[in-house]
Amino acid sequence: MNIYAGIILGTILIGYLLDLVAETLNLQALQTELPDEFKGVYAEDAYRKSQEYTRVNTRFGFVTSTFDLVLTLGFWFLGGFEALDQLVRGWGFHPIVTGLLYIGMLILAKTLISLPFSIYDTFVIEERFGFNKTTPKTFVADFFKGLGLSILIGGPLLAGLLAFFQYTGSSAWLYCWLVTTIVMLFLQFIAPTWIMPLFNKFTPLEEGDLRNRIFDYARSVNFPLENLFVMDGSKRSTKSNAFFTGFGKHKRIALFDTLIEKHSVAELVAILAHEIGHYKKKHILQNLVVGILHSGVMFYLLSLFISQKGLFEAFYLEQPSLYAGFIFFGMLYAPVELILSIALQIVSRRHEYEADRFAVETTKTSEAMVDALKKLSVHNLSNLTPHPFYVFLNYSHPPVLQRIRAIRQGKAWM
Predict the structure, then answer these.
(1) Residue 125 DSSP one-character state
(2) What are the start-end ranges of the E strands in 147-271?
(3) Eight-state DSSP code of residue 247
(4) pLDDT tens digits, one per residue of 79-99
(5) Residues 376, 259, 272, 353, Cα dihedral to 10°
(6) Alpha carbons 258 and 260: distance in angstroms, whole number
(7) ∠ CA 68-239-211 to the nearest 5 degrees?
(8) Where would I find the beta strands (DSSP E) of 195-315?
(9) What positions does the entry give for Zn(2+) binding (predicted)?
């Protein structure tokens, strides 16, 4: 085992153990007594149900991660990467076509193998706890739509990246970075209008008190809101949410229909104020810039390691290739991804506090935001007392009790 194999194997095992420790601590942090903040909001039986939901999802996550670990290590050490390489090389296609087939077959195999777990999660776990509204027809349609988009968008992009490394020498990473950035920006503009409607129906919010209140609020903070959409989230789940995406004339704010059903007008305005806060505080732009810079660093490092013979020897490949180098570098890069994901989640949690503060300051009330957060937690069976280490590794949003505490302490803002 060479140094590359040692780093990759160590990263896989450390990541698995970190998740195991975090999940164990998270289960131990569950409290049988309902927090005072939620008394009168969370029924005792519903609170117990939320804890069981956390336990079931944690156990299921352990099963899936263990299966993934065994599958990955088995495929690696039994020579699966080399066997597949010999298979696709034997078909005699152009190296770029061969690369597309090699990477595509690995991704497709991983997708198909994980499909039963996704089915069980949707139709057993989510069904058991009253969330699932997905029909088998919708599930199958989502699968093939996602697969089709991956082929239509990911296929040409991957072919271009392979071609740059094949033909442009030391400048390949710059061309890859430029093209990837263009695609990222392009998707930001087309996703709200062309991609998202493939999966959900977006209907303009009908005239009435809610629409008037939201547009009045948008004008009060100088936010150019042209339209507001209701998304048929109930098509798949009873869980509630809202989101903001896109830029310029293509930006879109959407409320799940389940959210509108369960919240008051004041609470919905507070939720929209939070989403607008992300825009006004430039969180979306910051995330995009970080993503672009990250891709540049990744492609530069890829250019340094993709020709390292030891990387291919670590996976028992007899003939180095660009396409296998992409896969192996991705596994070698995992420690950087882990550190970066933790850092980005720390930033994301700070952004959530900032958006909450913006919502409270501009709506001139803190209780609407607090009530909205409470209802979202109850309806989604959120874990109210996650362990700090689990939050550190996995949470993009602060735990709800910390958000409420920060809002209450911030009354002096107004």
Answers:
(1) I
(2) 202-204, 229-231, 242-245, 252-256
(3) -
(4) 999 999 999 999 999 999 999
(5) 10
(6) 6
(7) 140
(8) 202-204, 229-231, 242-245, 252-256
(9) 274, 278, 352
The CA-to-CA distance between both ends of the chain, in Å, stands at 61
Given strand 202-204, what is the order of strands in its sheet? 202-204, 229-231, 252-256, 242-245
Residues with Cβ within 8 Å of 80's Cβ and at least 6 positions away in sequence, in order, are 74
Quickly state the pLDDT bin for 191 (edges 50, 70, 90): confident
In whole angstroms, give the CA distance from residue 70 to residue 18: 16
Active site residues: 275, 356
pLDDT band, very low/low/confident/very high, at 248 (cuts 50, 70, 90) = low
Residue 274 among known ligand-binding residues: yes
Nearest CA-CA partner of 401 in 377, 366, 379, 365? 377
Superfamily of domain 202-262: Metalloproteases ("zincins"), catalytic domain (3.30.2010.10)
Cross-strand bridge partners of residue 253? 244
250 among annotated binding-site residues: no
CA distance 376 to 71: 37
What DSSP state is assigned to residue 241? -
- Residue 174 token pair: 């710059």
Distance between CA atoms of 63 and 55, rounded to whole angstroms? 12
Domain spans of the chain? Answer: 3-132+281-409, 202-262
Position of tokens 């903001």? 244
